[in-house]
Design brief:
Layout lengths: L3 E2 L10 H13 L9 H21 L6 E4 L2 H14 L7 E5 L4 H12 L3 E5 L9 H6 L5 E5 L13 H11 L2 E5 L11 H4 L3 E5 L10 E5 L25 H39 L3 E3 L10 E6 L4 H10 L2 E2 L15 H5 L4 H4 L2 E5 L6 H21 L3 H4 L1
Parallel strand pairs: 1-11, 3-4, 3-5, 5-6, 6-7
Antiparallel strand pairs: 2-8, 7-8, 9-10, 10-12
Length: 388
Amino acid sequence: MNRFYFDHNATTPVSPEALDAYVSAARDGFGNASSIHHYGQAAKQKLEAARRQVAEAINCHPKEIVFVSGGTEADNLALLGAVRSCDWKQRHVITTAIEHPAVLNPCARLEREGVRVTYVQVGSDGVVDPGEIRGSLRPETILISVMHANNELGTIQPVEEIAGIAREAGVLFHSDGVQALGRIPVDVKALEVDLYSLSSHKVFAPKGAGVLYVRKGVRLEPLLYGGHHERDLRPGTENVPAAAAFGVACDYLRREAGVEAERLRTLRDRLEKGILERVPVVRVNGSVEKRLPNTSNLCFEGLEGEAMVIGLDLRGCAVSTGAACSSGAVEPSHVLTAIGLPAEKAKASIRFSLGRGNTTEQVDTLIDAVAATAAHLRQLSPTWSVHA
């Protein structure tokens, strides 16, 4: 049986060029990048080349790139580092109700430290109103954190407008761009963000590398203490092979992202049209216009999403019910309930996220599999007659 992967928002397969870069760096750049001998300097050259490649992909200076272990660490460093670097007694953070747990859980940690956090709600389209952000500002607000694109819905947030609000108020602005890079244009100078998080395994590079863009002049308290690596913000010997692979992946995205985005949008629209035509009582969750070109989140009323995922996997198609880090959770998706879906509809929703290896033929196979699986499960469901 052929197997096809439609879960690229969870992680991506490693591309040939990223794998080659990883192997080359592991073989030829195995030295410690802080060592001054030949082997150390060979590793340092590969690390700095990767830093330049990532910087060029998001339009910033290489010295503003801080390598970390992934998107979660980047988000934690941004939030905890920014807030803890401020010695104000009263501190306040603004974020949204649909952020990734890598932002929500650091916010919860800050609340336990006495920091006040406002969680701004979003509309039924999954997009936050910048006016709500502005209205949440207080004199003690230190930081606003709003993701660039949502991992479950694919909805794109008005980051530029929110950055303008933050700038007027003299407040730092962080955006989690983990899902945005490679799918929509990312220019941190144009966005005017102060902090921006990236993750290598979302862009066809290996797991184990991430980046926090830190605008020159922004002060952060490090999470870890040790050597003087990464501008004193992230101690520890750098993961040069993972960074090298990330750099090469960013270089590829910089050249090909625009064409690939249009290709994926065409495939995504074909997928949605096919499913909506062949499967009754299905709706698109979130905004249809303001979303990533590769993402579709659909609610199949009267069905259990996890049963659909299993049924599709048995037919060779890998999809998900939402964020991979929340798989196995009993509670419905916090993102879907935040846009107003009741628990049963949130649990009946499936995320399809396309990527570089997907083809028209694969999408057509997926449409057939979705139609067959939904029909089979609804036939077995004692409650489906209520929805039919």
